[in-house]
């Protein structure tokens, strides 16, 4: 019996159970992962419930409806953006994996909608949106409208998310698209922080009563934009404008229909085109002339080659890029936060020194299995020193300017120019110590990166001890090492001694610590090459 | 055919003695002995899991053996890596390269890690790219290369410093016929100049065409080795291999429905 194309109902059931199966098998891979998933889901639901409860409490206040509109809008943006940088990790969202199966588009769409609605994400959205609907609701008309409006909005955001994913599947499953998505994700995370901070600064002044009026002008426009309109219909109906509420619901339904249509179109397109990853024509990186073309500043020999490769990776390789840019981003967010909340200090620049210096940790784990190329060419102790020196220079090349620039910005923002010199000195000594400690940890305790493409996960499972040792061990080590400089500075600040020598002392001390760390690490590197390679292979 | 403790013969490019590697309770390589003649084109054949990759990794200094010695032109790989590393070229299987470099950048990086002068690196890089038919793709990232192109750029990186002995793990796996022909041409030229090539493969026809010397590995040990004609003994290498490994003919009774009435 050769099989006929399966019936619609079968396809729908198969797709939903596929989603459940993928979820269950993903969890089965390790108990830790299952625990994290359950805890994460519970935390997400609790947070959503808390937010929903808070929104519901706003009911009756001036601007409660506006707040609900803003929350709904934020949720919509979030759902639209999520596939752009989580696409690679959610197999069930990738329609290109189903192209080999004899599926008709309509059952496929139906099954995909149901599969997309399965899982904790839509549940969180449902809870949150229910709270938002309650915030602006008033009377039975509101309740009746919300019964339609809330599910309609949930369905719309889920469909929006999947339609965006399917519409961009070709881009997202290509190597270039994935690389782009990572940067987009970082940017998005930063934007979320900025939005969060600006919300807090306009609303969250402690001691004052909650003033929702800043939302009003935005909400006045956004409430007419579907799918937000479908949710706001509950408020409109409660205020007696039944026709307007119906119009808002209709706009929401129309958008949903359009989104489904777009999704269906994309699915049909994807089902008849070849695997997207092979279609994208690869572009070159431009001719490279070794040490010429702007690379002339590199030292000669191995150190220069290593440095050039490291810098190219910091820009081109997703994991390396994510590591560098999150460390800069984290420092920036903290600085902005401190400025807004008024506890800023020029000494925050020390954090930049720490985070950027710790880019030296797990150097060879970041190379992954490509470390064999390094291992095969490391012959003499001088090679080992050059290898580590080259990488240290590469980190210094971006760490020193970023630290100095951040110091200037902080000094300008806080007006503490007297503290600038010692703060920068301390930061540079921390940077140097971090480079030394990082080099040593790289050789002594490397750990593997995960084999999957997600650059935000920075260790393969089953190595929690090693990663903890690396993260906290290196930080504690750096703090202890910098004690002499920090101690002098503390004494100078407390007893009124001169603080400026730290600008000289710090970099010198840091350079010494870095050189010592690199030397010690290089001494052990040659003897540990196969052991490091065995640890570094991604799994 | 195996001696228990042979003195390394002076003409040997590689001599492996009592090599062991265990992963957990399973021995991937179990007391392997092998002498590979210099200047030969050598094929290492064996079924999946026979220990070919593990053996090659230990022979090239990438995996530390539990026990045993490996000499390359008389120098101990594990006691004297300085004398060995500059003389060998490696193309491993299953390990990545620095794939976010372009093909040209990867070769330049490798050449400079090897300590070759910059101008010489550039000259050899361009020549290798040309011979391996990669010039048009030289500025694309290796991450965007096809399997055949990856093997070719890996081969170029392994040849760049003109090693005495070249170790290639499955150099033809997943490679299209055109690229395979290019790789064969380069390897033949390299071997004709008196260098030693050691490569592992599943493809018996290829080994038969290219090699003048073969070693058959099974369950972590060498079960046959010698000049090609000696090992195959009048049969095809394929038949000789299956017989050596002891493969049972499967008549496929269990799949009676396959190809029957639909």
Automatic annotation (TrEMBL), chain A:
Residue ranges crossing the lipid bilayer per the database entry: 34-55, 67-87, 108-135, 141-160, 180-199, 243-264, 322-340, 395-414, 420-447, 468-493, 499-522
Keyword Transmembrane helix: yes
Keyword annotations from UniProtKB, A to Z: Membrane, Transmembrane, Transmembrane helix
Coiled-coil ranges (or none): none
Keyword Transmembrane: yes
Protein name: Transporter
TrEMBL record, chain B:
Keyword Transport among record annotations: yes
Keyword set, alphabetical order: Antibiotic resistance, ATP-binding, Nucleotide-binding, Transport
GO terms of biological process kind: response to antibiotic
Keyword NAD applies: no
A single MF term (Gene Ontology): ATP hydrolysis activity
Gene Ontology CC terms, in alphabetical order: plasma membrane
Major location category of this protein: membrane
Database matches in InterPro entries: AAA+_ATPase (IPR003593), ABC_transporter-like_ATP-bd (IPR003439), ABC_transporter_ATP-binding (IPR050763), P-loop_NTPase (IPR027417)
Compartments in which it is found: Cell membrane
Residues annotated as domain ABC transporter: 14-244
Bilayer topology term: Peripheral membrane protein
Name of protein: ABC transporter ATP-binding protein
Source organism of the structure: Kitasatospora indigofera
């Amino acid at each position: 019996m050769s099989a006929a194309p399966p019936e619609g109902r079968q396809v729908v059931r198969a797709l939903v159970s596929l989603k459940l199966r993928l979820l269950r098998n993903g969890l089965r891979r390790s108990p830790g992962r299952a625990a994290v998933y359950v805890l994460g889901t519970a935390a997400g639901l609790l947070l959503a419930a808390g937010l929903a409860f808070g929104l519901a409490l706003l009911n009756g206040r001036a601007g409660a409806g506006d707040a609900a509109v803003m929350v709904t809008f934020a949720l919509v943006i979030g759902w639209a953006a999520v596939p752009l940088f989580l696409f690679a990790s959610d197999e069930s969202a990738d329609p290109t994996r189903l192209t080999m199966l004899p599926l008709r588009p309509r059952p496929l769409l139906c099954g995909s909608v149901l599969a997309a609605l399965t899982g904790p994400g839509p549940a969180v959205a449902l809870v949150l949106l229910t709270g938002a609907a309650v915030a602006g609701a008033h009377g039975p008309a509101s309740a009746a409208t919300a019964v339609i409006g809330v599910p309609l909005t949930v369905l719309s955001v889920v469909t929006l998310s999947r339609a965006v994913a399917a519409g961009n599947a070709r881009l997202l499953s290509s190597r270039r698209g994935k690389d782009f998505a990572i940067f987009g994700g970082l940017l998005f995370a930063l934007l979320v922080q900025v939005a969060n901070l600006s919300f807090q600064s306009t609303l969250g002044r402690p001691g004052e009563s909650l003033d929702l009026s800043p939302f009003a002008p935005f909400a006045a426009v956004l409430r007419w934009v579907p799918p937000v309109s479908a949710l706001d219909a509950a408020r409109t109906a409660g205020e007696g404008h039944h026709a307007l509420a119906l119009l808002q619901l209709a706009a929401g339904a129309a958008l949903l229909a359009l989104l489904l249509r777009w999704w269906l179109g994309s699915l049909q397109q994807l089902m008849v085109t070849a695997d997207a990853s092979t279609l994208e024509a690869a572009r070159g990186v431009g001719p490279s002339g070794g040490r010429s073309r702007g690379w002339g500043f590199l030292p000669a020999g191995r150190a220069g080659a290593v440095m050039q490769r490291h810098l190219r990776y910091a820009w081109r390789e997703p994991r390396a890029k994510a590591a560098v840019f999150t460390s800069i981003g984290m420092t920036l967010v903290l600085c902005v936060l401190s400025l807004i909340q008024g506890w800023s200090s020029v000494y925050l620049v020390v954090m930049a020194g720490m985070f950027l210096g710790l880019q030296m940790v797990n150097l060879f784990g970041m190379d992954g299995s490509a470390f064999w190329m390094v291992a095969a060419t490391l012959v003499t102790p001088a090679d080992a020193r050059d290898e580590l020196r080259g990488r240290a220079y590469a980190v210094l090349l971006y760490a020193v300017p970023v630290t100095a620039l951040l110091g200037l910005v902080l000094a300008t923002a806080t007006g503490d120019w007297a503290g600038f010199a010692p703060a920068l000195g301390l930061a540079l000594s921390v940077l140097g110590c971090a480079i030394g400690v990082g080099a040593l940890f790289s050789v002594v305790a490397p750990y593997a990166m995960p084999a999957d493409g997600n650059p935000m996960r920075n260790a393969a499972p089953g190595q929690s001890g090693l990663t903890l040792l690396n993260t906290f061990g290196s930080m504690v080590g750096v703090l202890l090492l910098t004690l002499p400089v920090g101690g002098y500075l503390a004494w100078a600040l407390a007893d009124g001694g001169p603080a400026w020598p730290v600008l000289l002392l710090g970099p010198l001390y840091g350079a010494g610590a870095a050189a010592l760390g690199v030397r010690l690490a290089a001494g052990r590197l040659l003897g540990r090459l196969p052991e490091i390679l065995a640890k570094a292979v991604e799994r | 055919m195996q001696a228990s403790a042979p003195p390394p013969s002076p003409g040997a490019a590689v001599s492996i003695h009592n090599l062991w590697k265990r992963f957990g309770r399973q021995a991937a390589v179990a007391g392997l002995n092998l002498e590979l003649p210099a200047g030969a084109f050598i094929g290492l054949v064996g079924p999946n899991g026979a220990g070919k990759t593990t053996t090659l990794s230990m022979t090239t200094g990438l995996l530390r053996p539990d026990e045993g010695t490996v000499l390359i032109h008389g120098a101990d790989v594990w006691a004297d890596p300085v004398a060995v590393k500059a003389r060998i070229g490696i193309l491993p299987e299953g390990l990545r390269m620095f794939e976010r470099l372009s093909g040209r950048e990867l070769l330049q990086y490798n050449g400079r890690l090897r300590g070759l002068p910059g101008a010489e690196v550039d000259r050899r890089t361009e020549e290798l790219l040309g011979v391996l038919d990669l010039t048009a793709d030289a500025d694309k990232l290796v991450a965007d290369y096809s399997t055949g192109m990856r093997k070719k750029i890996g081969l170029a990186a392994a040849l760049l410093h003109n090693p005495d002995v070249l170790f290639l793990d499955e150099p033809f796996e997943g490679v299209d016929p055109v690229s395979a022909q290019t790789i064969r041409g380069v390897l033949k030229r390299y071997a004709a100049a008196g260098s030693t090539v050691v490569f592992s493969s599943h493809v018996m026809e290829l080994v038969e065409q290219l090699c003048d010397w073969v070693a058959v590995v099974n369950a972590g040990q060498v079960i046959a080795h010698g000049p090609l004609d000696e090992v195959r003994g009048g049969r095809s290498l394929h038949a000789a291999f299956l017989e050596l490994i002891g493969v049972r003919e499967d008549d496929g009774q269990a799949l009676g429905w396959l190809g029957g009435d639909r």
